[in-house]
Amino acid sequence: MQSQALTLRAVQIKENDRLITALTEKHGIVRAFATGAKKPKNPLHGATQPFAFGQLEFAARRDTYIVKEATAQGLFFDGLAADITRLALANYFAALCIELCPQEEPAPTQLKLVLNALHFLSLGTRPQALLKAVVELQLLCLAGYMPDVDNPGEYFAETPLPVQQAVRFICDAPPQRVFRFALPQEGLQALAWHTGHYLSQQTNKVFEELAYYQKMCYNNAEF
């Protein structure tokens, strides 16, 4: 099976192999072995690096998948690694995808959302609090956890009106437009806090990647 895909994680297996977790357009979350991909000259090397986007071809082998072919079309890692908080937030996005995106089902909207977020994050052209809030809330909505934006209830009722309006916009906007809104820094921080709280309530999960990101932001006074 072939699909456009974003490699979310790549774990070294043995000396030269990788076990990757990818978000694919046609098949959602896929885990597969990439033989020899650690070698720089291997054809699988580029597209199976963390936060590489490209065309992947998978083949079933017993009870798992292997990567047969891979063509890299975009590499986000260098831009993300230029700032420790960017890379930490990208790793949190990867963890959210693995938790909330479907397996063995198409996920084109989720893929487009995360690619756009990584694009802005790697360039530093959108506030990180905005990116965090959008990715958290849109992935939740796509996974079936959309809040009642007309009756915010216990999760968003106490937030300022501009924050509630931002929540409504995020829930309704398509991926190509969802990052096109603005709030003052204080409003963005409130939005990001509330979307994070809503996510923890809905998933009942503590993300180590989020804790690390928050620690890095605190150390760098960025969040």
Protein model, in words:
It is a single chain. The chain folds into two domains: 2-75, OB fold (Dihydrolipoamide Acetyltransferase, E2P) (Beta Barrel), CATH 2.40.50; 78-220, de novo design (two linked rop proteins) (Up-down Bundle), CATH 1.20.1440. The chain is 45% helix and 22% strand. The chain contains eight helices and five strands, in the order E-E-E-E-E-H-H-H-H-H-H-H-H. The protein has a five-stranded mixed beta barrel with strand order 1-2-3-5-4. A hairpin with a 3-residue loop joins strand 1 (2-13) and strand 2. Helix 2 packs parallel to helix 4 and helix 4 packs parallel to helix 7 (185-203). The protein is globular and about 55 Å long.
Could you write a compact summary of the structure shown?
By secondary structure, this protein is of the alpha+beta class.
Write the H/E string, N to C: EEEEEHHHHHHHH
> What is the name of the CATH class of the largest domain?
Mainly Alpha
Main sheet attributes: strand count, strand direction, barrel closure:
5 strands, mixed, barrel
Strand content: 15-25%
Looking at the chains present, what oligomeric state does this protein adopt? single chain
Number of strands: 5
* Structural Rg: 18 Å
**Level of helix content?**
40-55%
Mean pLDDT: 91
Find the CATH topology of the largest domain. Answer: de novo design (two linked rop proteins)
CATH architecture of the largest domain: Up-down Bundle
Structure annotation, total helices: 8
Shape: globular
User: How many domain units?
Assistant: 2
Strand line-up in the sheet with most strands: 1-2-3-5-4
What ranges have pLDDT less than 50 throughout 5 or more consecutive residues?
A: none
**Euclidean distance between termini CA atoms:** 41 Å
Question: What is the SS-derived class?
Answer: alpha+beta
